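Q: A reviewer asked whether we had any structural model of the full assembly, not just the individual parts. We don't, so I'm hoping you can provide one. Inputs are below.
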Amino acid sequence: MQESKKPSRRGRPAAQGARTSRPRQAEVARAAGVSQATVSLILADKKDGAAFSDETRRKVLDAARELGYVPDPAARRLAAARNNLLGVFSFTATFPTEMQHSYYPFLVGVEQEAAARGYDLVLFTGSSSGGAGAAGPDALGRVRLADGCLFLGRHIPTQELRRLVADGFPAVHLGRRDELEGLAWVGADYVSAGREVVGKLADLGHRRFVLIREDDDAPASTDREQGFLEGLTAAGLDHDAGTVHRSADPRRDITPERLRGWLAEGVTAFVAEETDTGAAWRALRAACRTTGLQVPRDASLALLGSPPADLSHEAVPTGFDIPRTQLGAAAVRLLASLVAGEDAEEPLVTCTFRPGETAGPPPSVRQQPQAQGDM
Amino acid sequence: MQESKKPSRRGRPAAQGARTSRPRQAEVARAAGVSQATVSLILADKKDGAAFSDETRRKVLDAARELGYVPDPAARRLAAARNNLLGVFSFTATFPTEMQHSYYPFLVGVEQEAAARGYDLVLFTGSSSGGAGAAGPDALGRVRLADGCLFLGRHIPTQELRRLVADGFPAVHLGRRDELEGLAWVGADYVSAGREVVGKLADLGHRRFVLIREDDDAPASTDREQGFLEGLTAAGLDHDAGTVHRSADPRRDITPERLRGWLAEGVTAFVAEETDTGAAWRALRAACRTTGLQVPRDASLALLGSPPADLSHEAVPTGFDIPRTQLGAAAVRLLASLVAGEDAEEPLVTCTFRPGETAGPPPSVRQQPQAQGDM
DNA sequence: GCGCATTACTGATGCGCATTAACGAGAACT
DNA sequence: AGTTCTCGTTAATGCGCATCAGTAATGCGC
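A: Here is a predicted structure for the entire assembly that you could use as a starting point for your response.
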């Protein structure tokens, strides 16, 4: 593209072929025989309504319509010192090829709430697959162009985020994130939800439980475990009522043998943590099937979260639903508050219990199942 | 910079409690001990490289990094430059609650290509469900904040878009859109794809066809019909080889009676257009099932597009796949060209034939099926 | 007919940036 | 020593708009 060829005319470098650029307030003003300031004030329709005569108002509005005036958003935002932009930054691609891994449910809520509040969203592509601005240590810096930013994903670079937060940049993390002092976040109340699920199982009569969880210490996992344990306590059960089993690879780890072992110990209810891939849940179901267990006749299963999308045609797991859409909306609300300078406290979002079809009363008498059962 | 008076504070209306607003070029300049103009020039990194001493350059860059400087997109825009932002404007919510209706597959490509070219994306929420800025006749005007904008969806307000285009604003529509003179678009080559499908069916021996299409005249429908007809011609068949059936509500329209009627006329291959809901395809399958037809033994079915997601566990329809991800990427490429001032021609994107399992040779002898068949 | 409040509007200013004319200080040349 | 060049940098300007301090005009009381 031609750079500084023509010495004159600084603005509008190359882009346009537009001969008739769209009208400015100044032109409307001229057409209406008033000043630019008048046009601005009238079009902004300030509440001090009586400030202008109806005559003038009419002239301006007519002229604006006549000329097809449309305000320049860039100028508007520049003058107003904010741009009504909220950033969304995820450290994996926002739209991964496999939709199951995406933040889609969150984004639904984010978009709705942002729209309701008159914000537009900036999707920072910095992180996605080998993008241009990808690696740079200041990749995160770009988010400053928005009035505030939402962060998604597990592996956000702490240092840079800390910097943003320290600068007073409004930032909200979707999902709990305590380790970064001062970072606002919204999260689901996994503790309560986990407690509730265990409570329901206990109500059904179960007395011994196993929790299968991931082997890292993400808050989402830790909270679920805590809820699991609290549920036991709340049900008046003692310590060995619950076994917490950590597994880095449930598929090879949750073997029929192990399952039988637990059954032999009197376990009747199995609780799996929801993971990205649903591995724990899959492994559990597979083990049950292999073992010939009928669910929920011979054993009850619960899933602390939602089942993977590809299992949607199977039996609905007992467990809870994470209100992802609401979470997204709540995050935007919180972020909007921060941007506005208020520092609202956003409570944890409540998960809703999902009765499902995989839990029932425990078998009064444990018997080794003989035949292949279906679920 | 101190003005004569300072009591007023006009900018920054009420918004911030921010002690540290994000840094401006002026602050970088102060930190580096140079002028704002120097900062601007150095950060712009003009090719007249030797213009600044390495010393100065380094100081400026360091200061900028130190302070976390990020240019204000609005100001950049206003000063007639680029801001590396591409807009995405969809006239239904970009993230509808039901994911099947979403532009997700397109967005995957859009994000990838945008990232690869160093653009961030602005999702304009103007249109989504009851948003704040929803109705306003200038809802579209906001996109001017970005360097260019992508438009998705069937029902874009033509008037406003025309205005943008007339003003020389870089705009690309995803999907064919001829009626708006001068609007760039990228689309799938439904004509060729439709022709190919019919060709394959003809190769299998089919001689009489029915196309079930929507009753409006969207380009996507018209193109498919054209492809269908061209396919017949290419196969050396005459006019009455193909029946085009328009249906506004296939579910009630494609009755078993009607199906039998067509069969009686010697039709052996049924081609359905892909629609949002997959209604035509569903209706066709349902009618076959009710009639007891076995597919593809008794009749062949083809779908001009992809099946609805919830039918993913059924037999794969013969037909073609729309390369949505590639389309999204192509749209971004085209838009980027426009922004750069080039006016590249982007060809139609080719759909790929999908063999599927619903087409086979026609029955040599037509017989009324007696028993319930499965598909 | 003067002071004073109100009304109706305009002038001036700056938001943050890109751009360019101009400037000071050598270096190179006459 | 004076002149011209070149290099490195800065002052000045304006993009389109919102905002606010003024100002001219009018009304009102006394």
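A: Points you may want to mention in the reply: Residues 4, 7, 10-11, 13, 34-38, 41, 50-53, 56, 75, 77-81 of chain A lie near DNA strand C (CB under 10 Å from a C1'). The longest strand of chain A covers residues 85-90.
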